[in-house]
Amino acid sequence: MILQIIQIIVAILLIVSILLQAQGSGIGTAFGGGGEVFRSRQRMEKALVAGTVVFATALAIISIILLRQ
């Protein structure tokens, strides 16, 4: 039961991170700004990509564990 709840939370986080990446104008406008420094925006986008990879991997592992139960 706990693992299923964790799976739902990870899936929602994965969806949110993918949708934030899909915005054409970048992350800055998603949070209400547009004039951030390039480096900080680039770091945010790299962190978002890394988070997406982590969430996708976690979702796959949790799904396999639940499948084998």
Describe this structure as you would to a colleague.
With 69 residues, the protein is mainly α. It has one domain. The protein has two helices and no strands. The mean pLDDT is 85.
The CA-CA distance between the termini, in Å, is 11 Å
Show unreliable segments: none
Mean pLDDT: 85
Portion in strands: under 5%
Largest sheet: none
Rounded radius of gyration (Å): 15 Å
Order of helix and strand elements from N to C terminus: HH
Number of DSSP helical runs: 2
Overall structural domain count? 1
In percent, how helical is the residue content? Answer: over 70%
Q: Rough shape?
A: elongated
Give the oligomeric state: single chain
Question: What is the number of beta strands?
Answer: 0
Please identify the structural class as seen in this structure.
Answer: mainly alpha
